[in-house]
C-alpha cells in the first residue's frame, strides 16, 4: 500500500472530526468563507457547536480577530437554529502557546497541538470522558483517511436512512377517518335541523356540543365530541381543508398513533380551556381547537428539525398561528380560547410522546408531567371553581 503523508494538524483534525461525528452524534455545518477549519453541531450535545481550526495563530491580535469571526458565525447559526444561547467549543490546533486564551460569550477555547494533549486535556475529558479511548490514530496517512472516510460515510448513511424514514410519504389513515366522522356528523345535523348552511344551538347540544352546564352535570364526553361537530357548511369546509393540510403532515412526521392521541388531547385541552371562560348557556363546536393542537405539534417537531425546517417555522408555521389567533380575536363567535388551549395541549402532547430519533427520555417525562398538571388544573377550574 502506498504511504501518504498527512500533516500533523490535519491528522488531529480528522481524528477529532471522526470522534465527534461517529461517537458524539455531531453533524458538519457548511460555513461559507472559512478555510482550514471544521464546524460541527449537535443541538442536544454538551456543546451545541464545535469548531476545530488548524489556522496558524501566532499573536494576540490574530487570536482576537479569530474570536471576532467565530462570534459572527455563531450569530448566524443562532438565527438559523432559532437559538438564544449556544455553548461553543472552539479548538485551536496551531496556536502559539504564548497566546493567552480567554473564554467569553459562551465560547470555550482550547489550545492543543497533539493527540496526546487532546487525550490528557482535563476540560475535554470532563465533558467527553471516552475521548482518550475513542480517538482514531494511524501512522500511515492513507490508512487514516480511509478509516475516517468509511466511518463517517457509514454514519451519514445511517442518518440519511433515519431522515428518510421520518420525511418519506406514508399512508394517511386517521386524518381521513377523522374527516369522515366530521362529514357524517354534518349529514346527521343537516337531517336533524333541515338546514345545510347553519345549525341551531339546540341541535348541536343534542349531538354533543361543548357546554359548561352539561359537562359539569356529568356529560364529560362532550369535551371530545364537540371537535367532530361544526356549526354549518362553511365551518366544516374550512376546518376539513385545514385538517387535510395539517393532519397529513403531522401524521407523516410524528406517526399515526401519536397523531391520533395528540389530536384527541388537543381537542380535550381546547374544550377545557374554553369552559374556563365560557358562559353556562353557550355551546361551542368545531375541530379548530384540535387543529391548533396540530400546529403546536408541528411547531415542536420543527424545533427539533430546525436545521432543516427553520425557514418553514419562521415563514409558515409561526405566521399561520399568529394570523389565525388574530382572526379569532377580531371575528365574532370564534372560540379563540379553545384555539389557545388546543395549541398548548398539542405542543405538550408532542413533547410527552416525543419525536423519533430526537427526543430524550427526560424531555418526554417532563412533557408528561407538565401535560398532566395542565389538564388537571383546567379540570379543577371547570369542575370545582366555575
How does this structure look, described?
This protein folds into two domains: 8-167; 174-385, Rhomboid-like fold. The protein has 16 helices and seven strands. The protein has helices at residues 8-22, 60-81, 115-120, 122-127, 131-134, 141-167, 174-193, 201-207, 212-216, 222-225, 233-254, 256-277, 288-304, 306-330, 336-353, 361-385, and strands at 27-29, 37-41, 49-53, 88-92, 107-111, 210-211, 283-284. It has a five-stranded mixed sheet, sandwiched between helices. Helix 13 crosses helix 15. The longest helix has 27 residues, at 141-167. The chain starts with 7 loop residues before the first helix and ends with a helix. The relative contact order is 0.09. The model has no long low-confidence stretch (mean pLDDT 89).
Please name the defining characteristics of this protein.
single chain, 386 residues, alpha/beta, Rhomboid-like fold, two-stranded antiparallel ribbon, 7 strands, 7% strand
**Percent range for helical residues?**
55-70%
Strand content: 5-15%
Order of helices and strands: HEEEHEEHHHHHHEHHHHEHHHH
Which superfamily, in CATH terms, is the homologous superfamily of the largest domain?
A: Rhomboid-like
Overall average residue pLDDT: 89
**Overall CATH architecture of the largest domain:** Up-down Bundle
- For the record, the count of structural domains works out to 2
CATH C-level name of the largest domain: Mainly Alpha
Total number of beta strands: 7
Structural class: alpha/beta
Gross geometry: elongated
